[in-house]
């Protein structure tokens, strides 16, 4: 049974191979044609120039005959092999055709050597290949390529081949539309296009190609038109040419007398409705297509077509220009621009919304109007919907768009032909200038300078809108934040050498926009590298690209957003000495504005805006544009000197720098007044103003246990003041361990200091229980807790400022106030401790001061000396 299956499979495979081979062979045939005039006779003595590929192209002649039963396109090509480097190119040529409606006839593959012709049709290797050029884009058109390899080609040979392609796409009916390139990227001695057509056809022809001659004639059965160019030089295709600009030149023909004829041709192809009413009703219910809610219905229908029907096209035969029925597109859940547009129009009509497909050209854009009226003038289809609030233009092939239509990216197509009865011409597709920047950068640079060290912390927030938001999301999804961050850092280092990343870029999703947050840090030695710093709105340099110093023959494409803004705010603790200024560079194609100013906080602000006013710069305006671009690039760097200001530190502060210190002092005053009022009722207030009496009364009443709770709270406050910032800036197991270690250390200090006090009290003849001494010490810590809290307020809760190695004048108010409060708190604690000891010993306050002065005070003084010594090191 297994052998039988294998045999059957082998038989089927052989049949398939035979069938495919037979089909391929049927796509072309070899046949003689009437002997044409020799190339020498056509050239009339002209030999042409040798191209860079080592060949001398003599003639490229196209002859289109429309007078027969089928259109027949005959091509004749001849060239001489002038150099060894031309052998590979000379021995091969290819022919593209559509097997669904075309047949190739090979008339000649001739090699002339020493004046003798050799027919190579039988010796050449001919292969039928299927090479889908748009496969990666999801489009299959079914075209085939006849690849011909000619054997035995030598330097000095002349190669000539001729072939005819019979047939024409039936989707165009009785009309005919075509175009040819007039020139090539190589020199050609003779380029000729000739078309013969029935006398009754309304043929329109155009060949706006300088240097070509045109002539026409007729006989009893047909008319003909011929365009001919001699001794054509190679076309040097320049970089940056707009997609719709054809430097080769076009020779066009069309039987359409106007754009209305193209509309009438397209109308039967786009009925824009469902024949299956059950399916239509099902989709209308599923998508809630309600005539009472036209805007919502249109958004839901668009979301369905964009998001649930993938972009794939099988453009074979009639489907090269004719869309599939909406029912089939829904069933397959795929389609190309024609299919998706027809489906969307059908859905919109189910919601009572008038809509029609619109033929457009994604490369030629507004240049479409310069083409002859023809279906070939278009390469894409979109939809125009008529909503109560106005026309809405939709591209169903886009990735799913969200939000209201007015917030979506407009279509950059400029001109289109609506497929609607009565339309006679192209219409303008609105492309309003964006009200907000499509790319907006907010950058902040904070300088910390302590000669010879300088530090710049850079924060970059880039907001992307419209189509730019979707593309940046796709990049993050595809590459990940880490990889993108590496690319961003490399990009930023082009402007700031030595820059380091402080964090991985973060993607933030907002309403109809996307934001990327970046952070960097730059440190340098001003003694070695100088104190000059370039403030650069770098994002705009991506679009103000430096242009080459040369003449230009073709227009230059302008890319990037039409509206972009980059704002840089720079803060320096010593302030800035900068004058307000504004500059503008403007021409018909772009406008650049730069403003320099100081804001209310004294920060230096540079605002740079780029407006692209056109899609391209004409060749005659290139020199002016290049000069303006250089001026823009010069304005995109503002050099400042970040050297330390020699004036006293407090002169470099602003009112904002005093907010927290004043708040701490005001809060301290309020708390101290309130404590004075509550000194007889609140133990904490009592330890501030009457520590001796408070401890004595609590000892008598047996309520010294409050000292444990007060001491515990103060220990926690001290630990958070000294080490708590690490839990927020560097959260880690090590940070937690440091905090826990700090708590343990303070408890050890508490026990040790209590023992020292107990010993000192014994020396002065006062015996006290160790537990009473520890609790009294805890009660006396109340002023410490209060003034440490006030110091945290003075620092704006940025206790890490005390650890900074770089002194920043703007931080002087906070630091000075915090230190003052800590010193006051230390002194108050010693007085409170002395009073507490006196109350515990049942003696006068002077004796308590003596006890503390001979025990705790020397230890505190020693600790402060050690701390200062370590700091100075």
Question: Can you summarize this structure?
Answer:
This protein is α+β, with helices and mostly antiparallel strands and 873 residues long.
What does this protein look like?
By secondary structure, the protein is α+β, with helices and mostly antiparallel strands. The chain has five domains: 25 residues; 225 residues, Immunoglobulin-like; 167 residues, C8orf32 fold (Roll); 203 residues, no CATH class; 220 residues, no CATH class. It has 22 helices and 36 strands. Strands 1, 2, 3, 5, 6, 10, 12, 14 and 15 form a nine-stranded mixed β-sheet that branches. Helix 12 crosses helix 13, helix 17 packs across helix 18 and helix 19 runs antiparallel to helix 20. The protein is elongated.
List key phrases describing it.
873 residues, Immunoglobulin-like, 5 domains, 9-stranded mixed β-sheet, 8-stranded mixed β-sheet, 22 helices, elongated
The name CATH uses for the topology of the largest domain is Immunoglobulin-like
- Give a quick account of the main beta sheet: strands, pairing sense, barrel closure: 9 strands, mixed
**Low-confidence regions:** 1-25, 645-652
Count of individual beta strands:
36
Task: Name the helicity range.
Answer: 25-40%
CATH architecture of the largest domain: Sandwich
Estimate nothing, just give the exact number of structural domains.
5
CATH class of the largest domain: Mainly Beta
CA radius of gyration is: 43 Å
Beta-strand fraction estimate = 25-35%
Mean pLDDT: 88
Number of helices: 22
**Which descriptor suits the 3D outline?**
elongated
């Amino acid at each position: 049974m297994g052998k039988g299956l294998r045999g059957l499979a082998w038989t089927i495979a052989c049949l398939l191979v035979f069938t495919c081979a037979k089909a391929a062979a049927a796509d072309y045939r070899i046949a003689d044609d009437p002997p044409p005039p020799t190339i020498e006779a056509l050239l009339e003595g002209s030999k042409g120039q040798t191209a860079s590929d080592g060949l001398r192209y003599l003639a490229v002649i196209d002859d289109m005959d429309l007078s027969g039963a089928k259109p027949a396109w005959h091509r004749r090509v001849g060239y001489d092999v002038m150099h060894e480097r031309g052998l590979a190119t000379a021995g091969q040529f290819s022919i593209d055709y559509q097997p669904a409606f075309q047949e190739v006839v090979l008339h000649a593959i001739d090699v002339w050597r020493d004046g003798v012709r050799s027919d190579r049709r039988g010796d050449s290797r001919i292969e039928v290949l299927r090479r889908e050029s748009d496969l990666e884009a999801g489009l299959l058109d079914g075209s085939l390529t006849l690849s011909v390899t000619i054997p035995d080609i030598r330097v000095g040979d002349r190669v000539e081949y001729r072939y005819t392609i019979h047939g024409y796409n039936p989707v165009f009916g009785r009309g005919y539309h075509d175009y040819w390139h007039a020139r090539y990227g190589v020199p050609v001695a003779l380029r000729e296009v000739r078309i013969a057509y029935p006398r009754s056809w309304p043929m329109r022809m155009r060949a706006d190609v300088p240097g070509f001659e045109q002539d026409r004639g007729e006989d009893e059965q047909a008319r003909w038109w011929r365009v001919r160019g001699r001794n054509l030089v190679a076309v040097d295709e320049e970089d940056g040419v707009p997609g719709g600009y054809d430097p080769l030149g076009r020779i066009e023909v069309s039987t359409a007398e106007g754009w209305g004829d193209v509309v009438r041709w397209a109308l039967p192809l786009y009925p824009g409705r469902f024949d299956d009413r059950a399916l239509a009703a099902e989709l209308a219910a599923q998508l809630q297509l309600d005539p009472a809610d036209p805007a919502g219905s249109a958004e839901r229908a668009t979301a369905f077509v964009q998001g649930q029907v993938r972009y794939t096209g099988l453009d074979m035969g009639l489907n090269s220009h004719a869309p599939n029925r909406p029912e089939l597109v829904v069933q397959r859940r795929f389609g190309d621009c024609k299919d998706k547009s027809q489906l969307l129009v059908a859905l919109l009509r189910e919601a009572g919304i008038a809509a029609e497909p619109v033929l457009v050209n994604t490369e030629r854009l507004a240049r479409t109007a310069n083409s002859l009226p023809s279906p070939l003038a278009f390469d894409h289809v979109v939809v125009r919907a008529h909503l109560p609030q106005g026309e809405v233009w939709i591209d169903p092939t886009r990735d799913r768009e969200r939000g209201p239509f007015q917030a979506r990216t407009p279509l950059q197509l400029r001109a289109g032909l609506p497929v609607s009865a009565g339309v006679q011409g192209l219409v303008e597709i609105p492309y309003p200038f964006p009200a907000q920047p499509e790319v907006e950068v907010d950058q902040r640079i904070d300088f910390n300078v302590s000669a010879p060290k300088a530090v710049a912390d850079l924060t970059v927030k880039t907001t992307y809108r419209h189509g730019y938001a979707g593309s940046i999301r796709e990049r993050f999804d595809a590459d990940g934040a880490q990889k993108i961050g590496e690319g961003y850092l490399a990009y930023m280092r082009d402007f700031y050498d030595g820059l380091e990343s402080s964090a991985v870029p973060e993607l933030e999703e907002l309403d109809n926009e996307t934001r990327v947050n970046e952070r960097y840090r730059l440190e340098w030695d001003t003694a070695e590298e100088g104190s000059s710093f370039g403030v650069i709105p770098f994002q705009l340099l991506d679009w103000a690209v430096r242009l080459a110093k040369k003449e230009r023959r073709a227009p230059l494409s302008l890319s990037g957003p039409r509206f972009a803004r980059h704002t840089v705010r720079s803060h320096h603790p010593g302030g800035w000495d900068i004058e307000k200024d504004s500059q503008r560079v403007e021409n018909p194609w772009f406008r650049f504005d730069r403003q320099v100013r100081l804001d209310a906080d004294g920060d230096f602000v540079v605002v740079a805006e780029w407006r692209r006013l056109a899609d391209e710069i004409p060749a005659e305006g290139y020199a002016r544009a290049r000069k303006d671009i250089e001026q823009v690039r010069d304005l995109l760097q503002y050099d400042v000197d970040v050297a330390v200001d020699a004036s006293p530190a407090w002169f470099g502060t602003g009112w904002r720098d005093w907010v927290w210190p004043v708040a701490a002092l005001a809060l301290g005053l309020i708390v101290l007044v309130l404590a004075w009022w509550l000194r007889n009722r609140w133990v904490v207030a009592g330890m501030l103003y009457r520590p001796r009496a408070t401890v004595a009364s609590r000892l008598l009443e047996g309520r010294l246990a409050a000292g444990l709770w007060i001491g515990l709270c103060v220990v926690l406050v001290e630990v958070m003041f000294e080490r708590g910032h690490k839990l927020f800036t560097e959260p880690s197991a090590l940070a937690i361990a440091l905090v826990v270690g700090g708590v343990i250390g303070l408890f050890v200090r508490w026990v040790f200091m209590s023992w020292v006090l107990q010993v000192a009290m014994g020396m002065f003849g006062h015996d006290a229980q160790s537990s009473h001494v520890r609790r009294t010490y805890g009660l006396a810590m109340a002023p410490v807790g209060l003034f440490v809290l006030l110091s945290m307020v003075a620092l704006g809760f940025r206790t890490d400022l005390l650890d900074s190695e770089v002194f920043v004048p703007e931080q002087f108010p906070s630091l000075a106030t915090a230190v003052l409060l800590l010193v006051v708190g230390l002194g108050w604690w010693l007085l409170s401790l002395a009073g507490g000891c006196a109350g515990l010993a049942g003696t006068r306050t002077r004796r308590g001061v003596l006890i503390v002065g001979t025990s705790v005070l020397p230890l505190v003084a020693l600790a402060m000396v050690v701390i200062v010594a370590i700091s100075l090191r």
